[in-house]
Amino acid sequence: xxxxxxxxxxxxxxKINLSKIxxxxxxxxxxxxxxxxxxxxxxxxxGALGFxxxxxxxxxxxxxxxxxxxxxxYLPCQDQDKNWSYGERLRFNTMCSNADIIHCVTEGKYxxxxxxxxxLAMVEASDMCIAYMKNMRSGTSQTINMAEExxxxxxxxxx
Length: 159
Description:
- This protein is α/β, with parallel strands linked by helices.
- The protein has a single domain, classed as 3-Layer(aba) Sandwich (Rossmann fold), CATH 3.40.50.450.
- It contains five helices and six strands; from the N terminus they run E-H-E-H-E-H-E-H-E-H-E.
- A six-stranded parallel β-sheet has the order 4-3-2-1-5-6, sandwiched between helices.
């Protein structure tokens, strides 16, 4: 990790087996605390359902213990939650209200390619990645490939 930036982003699948959530939360917390101990102060989440939300919620929880960390949301578009359920929107709004910074990568509504632009922006802003990747044919794997091309440290907690 560089001495200048201390930034970690999250990438992972939207659909996660409910029986795995407790284990994922535990492993996320361990890896986030390891990153904090290595000097990471900024955590970037993409605001999506699934792993992104779990990761953001862990950072929010850890902010009580580590007052120097911040959560930055990189949203792909302004209407990301348009087709989500009421409960999903409530959770999203709670995450947004607890974020330190919200950065909308594209202006306006959802367009083809806005998710990829968001993923590339997260990669370009970061030194490391905590991921949950089980499926090699996914947006998560594409994002990890981008991170590998930039020599970003990747920790895949799905292994």
